[in-house]
Amino acid sequence: MKNISIAIHGGAGTIRKDSLTKTKEQEYKQILQLALDAGYQLLEQGATSLDAVEMSVSKLEDSHLFNAGKGSVFTANGTHEMDASIMDGSTLEAGAISLVTGVKNPVQLSRLVMEKSDHLFLSGEGAQDFARSVNCEFRDEDYFYDEFRHQQWLALKGSDTFQLDHSLSKEDKFGTVGAVALDKFGNIAAATSTGGMTNKMYGRVGDSSIIGSGTYANNLTCAVSCTGSGEYFIRGVVAYDVSCLIEYKKMSLAEACTEVIQYRLKKIGGDGGLIALDNNGNIVLEFNTQGMYRGRRSVDGLNEVIIYQ
Question: What pLDDT is attached to residue 170?
Answer without folding.
Answer: 43
